[in-house]
Write a structure and sequence with these properties.
This protein is 36% helix and 18% strand. It has 336 residues and is an alpha/beta fold. The chain folds into two domains: 157 residues, ANL, N-terminal domain (Rossmann fold); 123 residues, 3-Layer(aba) Sandwich (Rossmann fold). Strand 12, helix 12 and strand 13 form a beta-alpha-beta unit. Helix 4 crosses helix 5.
């Protein structure tokens, strides 16, 4: 008798993120890969593949080599995805930095990760990142050598710089470091390999039945695994499009993105769905394109299931996959 239940057996992929990107671009190159609604930016898979090469060459020109750490300190934007794919193509290890960090938290991450380059914006509505970085690095013995601001000419110069791309990358090599919240002590850097991320994306995409016809609305932060793995890697392995509604979560922007881009999937934690359902103008959004989605962190309270059903939030049975549970949860909230 089996001591545990298991789903279907699928062969895992033994390829890097960069190789998976090339496969997807070869298969559905003209399909939409990423939409950044707040930036009015769109890239196809072929364009994203080409941009990944440009970022990888630019990193090489900075002296970034295989296994060197590269930090990204930014809220959701198309540049986040570009750097994620470019680092993977270059063999560099991307270090996710929470945009809410203060200078002492940033200093800890800079020191522990030993990152050699950091990519960021000068400032946004949340913080003055340039000032925080200066405070964090002042008189500190760090390995940081390069600071590239997305809103400076140096970012474009990096994209136009010639360089080499390594071809000896292995699927089992580390591609990403994500830091825990540190609620039970100091934050710990979790190392994820190409193999981890590609196959997480593959299996989740199969569970959600994603294809290149799908569009995933990703209002969750990309610095978190919910955004950059459960969001971006499922798109990468299936050819679905990543739709970024805003820099940070805004319930109205998320629903507007679903309506405008005809998203078929919507991500969020319960508080996000509650905020969306609570909008006075909720019923004015056309959400009939949605067929599935993902919720993490906790279950949606029962009263909100009822509200969702009453408001006909989805046109048919929806398919919510909880990444913190073994099984898929389905809620039928169809009209009528």
């Amino acid at each position: 008798m089996l001591s545990y239940s298991r789903g279907p057996n699928f062969p895992l992929l033994e390829i890097t993120i960069g190789e998976q990107l090339r496969r997807t671009a070869d298969r559905v190159g003209n399909s939409l890969a990423v939409v950044s609604c707040h930036q009015s930016r769109r890239l196809t898979w072929a364009q994203l593949d080409e941009v990944a090469d440009r970022v990888a060459r630019g990193l090489w020109s900075l002296g970034i080599r295989k296994t060197d750490r590269v930090g990204i300190w930014s809220s959701n934007c198309v540049e986040w995805v570009m750097l994620q794919m470019g680092c993977a193509r270059a063999g560099a290890i991307l270090v996710n930095i929470n945009p809410a960090y203060r200078s002492h938290e940033l200093r800890f991450t800079l020191r522990k990760s030993r990152m050699k380059a950091i990519f960021l914006w000068h400032a946004d509505a949340r913080a003055d990142y340039a000032a925080l970085l200066q405070e964090a690095t002042q008189e500190q013995p760090l390995e940081l050598r390069h600071t590239i601001y997305f809103d400076s000419p140096r970012w474009q110069e990096l994209l136009d710089t010639p360089g080499d791309i390594p071809f000896d990358l292995q699927a089992q090599e580390v591609s990403n470091i994500q830091y825990t919240s540190g609620t039970t002590g100091l934050p710990k850097g979790v190392m994820l390999t190409h193999h981890n991320q590609v196959n997480n994306g593959l299996l989740l995409a199969r569970g959600l039945r994603y294809t290149e016809s799908d569009r995933i609305c990703i209002p969750v932060p990309l610095y978190h695994c919910f955004g950059c793995v459960i969001g971006n890697m499922t798109a990468l392995t299936s050819g679905a499009a990543m739709v970024l509604p805003n820099w940070t979560f805004d319930p109205s922007a998320a629903l507007k993105a679903v309506e405008t881009e005809r998203c078929t999937s919507l991500y969020g934690v319960p508080a996000m769905f509650i905020a969306e359902l609570g909008l006075p103008e909720f019923s004015s959004f056309d959400l009939t394109s949605l067929r599935t989605g993902m919720m993490a962190g906790a279950s949606l309270p029962g009263r909100n299931h009822e509200a969702r059903g009453r408001r006909n939030a989805l046109p048919a049975a929806d398919h919510w996959l909880r990444p913190d549970r073994k099984h898929t949860c389905r809620y039928h909230v169809g009209a009528g």
